[in-house]
Amino acid sequence: MATMESLIGLVNKIQRACTALGDHGGEGMSLWEALPSVAVVGGQSSGKSSVLESVVGRDFLPRGSGIVTRRPLVLQLHKIAGGAEYAEFLHAPKKRFSDFASVRKEIADETDRITGKTKQISNVPIHLSIYSPNVVNLTLIDLPGLTKVAVEGQPDSIVQDIENMVRSYIENPNCIILAISPANQDIATSDAIKLAREVDPTGERTFGVATKLDLMDKGTNALDVLEGRAYRLQHPWVGIVNRSQADINKNVDMIAARRKEQEYFESSPEYGHLAHKMGAEYLAKLLSKHLESVIRQRIPSIIALINKTIDELNAELDRIGRPIGVDGGAQLYTILEMCRAFDRVFKEHLDGGRPGGDRIYGVFDNQLPAAFKKLPLDRHLSLNNVKKVISEADGYQPHLIAPEQGYRRLIDGSLGYFKGPAEASVDAVHFILKELVRKSISETQELKRFPSLQSDIAAAANDSLERFRDESRKTVLRLVEMESTYLTVEFFRKLHLEPEKNSNPPPNPSGPNLDRYTENYFRRIGSNVTAYVNMVCDTLRISIPKAVVFCQVLQAKRALLNQFYAHVGRREKEQLGKMLDEDPSLMEKREQIAKRLALYKSARDEIDSVAWK
């Protein structure tokens, strides 16, 4: 089995790493919260700070009246084999403190940095590590002292604010509660015991500490408390004799104070039989042993949490994208993979896997027919215009049998109107395809990390769509022009046009006067042209969508990024790197995830290697 020092030391190491990465909160239980630690709880002036200093063996905590501890102090003790003692703060990782008076000043300065020189409190913890041959491996959290009234300079809510902060730590089922109570006060009124009882009613997580035993009234003692009769806990009570104010003023060495404390218990007629289970040194060993036991019990759940978090972090890395290689080949491969991912999404929009492609059919089924219906053919083929066109087409020589030139002019003029709807269909589909490109880029998860590549792909895709639109416009205009260039002769052969004659004898057909024809004659010409134009309209209603789909939609599916592929293949490594220039916030997020992933994997491996030796 692992030694106590190695297992607790490992937990301390993991907790420091978690804290450095900010992994001590959020949704669910973090690894920091899953690792057991000891929270020191007590009322103001209960001797809480003195207990901590006795456990550490150093005088390092700020002192004063009122609330001195105004931020949680996460104190990690690391036993070293030898050498000089020193301390390190997480907020100043490169600075080593060997003078513990400087440690006290740094705690006070760091507290003021957040709270100001007021009596306000903050739940932002200070993280301090102490390395010494005179300590046991242990994590202690010194919390602000519980109080019953607000003093001048504090908000009215300070009493509840402190209690809420303390609760936020001790409600964690992995937290061991060190409840500090002055022995010269009634244990029933102890703030620490009262709060511990609420969050740990069975007492399995609570250790009781009775302080100030040497300050009790003459003729009284705390045996009922220390022997568990006044208030029973599952763990034994420990008595502590803190340094006196005179000792503090004289800067009595903490190691000497420990010896003095032990002498007090050994020579005491009331506590002599408990001397071997009293004092700060015994308390530290007791807590360390229990902490090691709790850690070992929690190992399966800790490993389960680590594995779950590793899976979540890997999934998140897959979602935002893993780091890419630095060589040109890896960069080119990444760019091509991003393009293929975009292309898949774009095709899904066109083929119906995602919304958007149906809007193209809407252009053909609704917009194009509606535009045809709005063409001014009635005005162009009105009786007056038919007369005018026929007359102008004949010139000085009236037609002999049928006004063929007039027919051609009327049909050419009518079919010219179809160019507008044809081009509008091309533009409408072009707009839809551009919109689908934009949506596809935003929906391609792999591309989100590369804003520059997004812009490059969008520009390349839109350039291709412009070319496809130009070709499509030429094609649909050719379709209209082809209908004007060669008329369907069979349609007119079936008409058997015969001019209606007036009741008067017909004039000479070679005569120059067109008034010999009745209005019915021109009306019939207009009707014939309308019928032909309608036939062409039905044809174009079918052929224009085919041309648009072939020239724009099909080409977009087949060759949207072909020119981009050819262009990017000729780029140098530096240019490829610029295309893969990521969003700085995403890079920072990936770096943090990668660090957390490395932390959790290392923690799992180290716990596995240490716990079961």
UniProtKB/TrEMBL annotation:
Checking PROSITE patterns in the record gives: G_DYNAMIN_1 (PS00410), G_DYNAMIN_2 (PS51718), GED (PS51388)
Share an example GO biological-process annotation for this protein. Answer: cell division
What is the native source organism of this protein?
Actinidia chinensis var. chinensis (Chinese soft-hair kiwi)
Q: Which InterPro entries match?
A: Dynamin, Dynamin_GTPase, Dynamin_GTPase_CS, Dynamin_N, Dynamin_stalk, G_DYNAMIN_dom, GED, GED_dom
Q: Which GO terms describe its molecular function?
A: GTP binding; GTPase activity; microtubule binding
The GED domain is annotated at 522-613
Q: What is its main location?
A: cytoplasm
Entries under SMART domains matching the protein: DYNc, GED
Annotated region (Disordered), positions in chain? 498-517
Q: How does it assemble?
A: Forms homodimer and may homooligomerize and heterooligomerize to form the phragmoplastin complex. Binds to PHIP1.
List UniProt keywords, sorted A-Z.
Cell cycle, Cell division, Cytoplasm, Cytoskeleton, GTP-binding, Hydrolase, Microtubule, Motor protein, Nucleotide-binding
* Full protein name: Dynamin-related protein like
**Domain Dynamin-type G, chain residue ranges per copy:** 32-300
Q: Does the keyword Glycoprotein apply?
A: no
* Family that this chain belongs to: Belongs to the TRAFAC class dynamin-like GTPase superfamily. Dynamin/Fzo/YdjA family.
A Pfam entry, by short name: Dynamin_N
Q: Where in the cell is it found?
A: Cytoplasm, Cytoskeleton, Phragmoplast
Question: Which is one Gene Ontology cellular component term of this protein?
Answer: phragmoplast
